[in-house]
Amino acid sequence: MGRASKREEIAEAAFRQFHARGFNATGINDITKAAGVPKGSFYNHFSSKEESALEALSRYAETLRFDLLATPDLPPLERLRAHFEYLSRDTVDNGFVRGCLVGNFGAEIADHSEEIRVAAKQGFDAWAHRLGAVLAEAQAAGDLDGSLNTETIALFILSAWEGTLIAARVDKSSAPVDAFFELVFERILR
Amino acid sequence: MGRASKREEIAEAAFRQFHARGFNATGINDITKAAGVPKGSFYNHFSSKEESALEALSRYAETLRFDLLATPDLPPLERLRAHFEYLSRDTVDNGFVRGCLVGNFGAEIADHSEEIRVAAKQGFDAWAHRLGAVLAEAQAAGDLDGSLNTETIALFILSAWEGTLIAARVDKSSAPVDAFFELVFERILR
Fold first, then answer.
1. In contact, B59 and B12? CB cutoff 8 Å
2. ipTM surpasses cut 0.95
3. CB-CB neighbors (< 8 A) of A162 in chain B
């Protein structure tokens, strides 16, 4: 097994472990064990646990199906709904565990690691920007009140989604997710 | 110093440490050091770190100023706003750190400790119930559309608040808090 593939296995294992356990509960040992590599090999590829957490955030972003926000020939608000429906199914089908890695790191680590805070901020900013662009499209198409501030709504919807995932994990039910869809799509964006 | 006051100091230190550091980053040693008591004395009063975390959730709930939801002679929606304005000031004035202990435990621990998950669920349920009661009062007073489901709105507002705190900590700005007030009070409850 070459160096490059070991790095890939360690990076992917780190992402999975951080997502399942959180930052502080994940040891380097958990990561290398899950990757099936010797513990010492972690430091051949990452200078610190923090560095592997930054890469985990990038890997997580790739799972968020932003492509659903850009499906051709679908009205903007239907694309927005499809994006959150995908994320909802992922949570419901997995038994309401893990939540969002960006939000988890935000809750657990943002106060204590400036590097991780900044990476989480970039993740949220990029996500909110994508949501805001779809909302602006909806306004241009006449599907959304043109007087609304799409950036503010995008920021709020993303915050609400992050809290919804925590509430669903705590409640072990889809009630918070159902409330999110009802209020966002039937009240805020109606 | 008597037993009872040592217990109080340990319990209060545990709450402060969990709120500032999170569950996994807080060691028994951090708690007893902050309380100014010998490490071994922790186990004279608590059977486990988890047990002190359950008490921390109760102590946190007492800081949430639920009394602001019941101020006499103030319209229901103004009481709701005063409650969240108090919580917002607390976050802004503290430099966007710590967030909500219930949400933090939800994000970090709910998947891993059934006892803490259930306690966090009870905390959210009681909080949402109080918010829902104020919304029902607003409906009765004719200040809120009577066709809205107040329990669903309460659940959503609480989720949105939890996510807003995480976004504010990540952004180190009040922008997510401002978006919360604008969308909740000017759009959802208008």
1. yes
2. yes
3. 162-163, 166-167
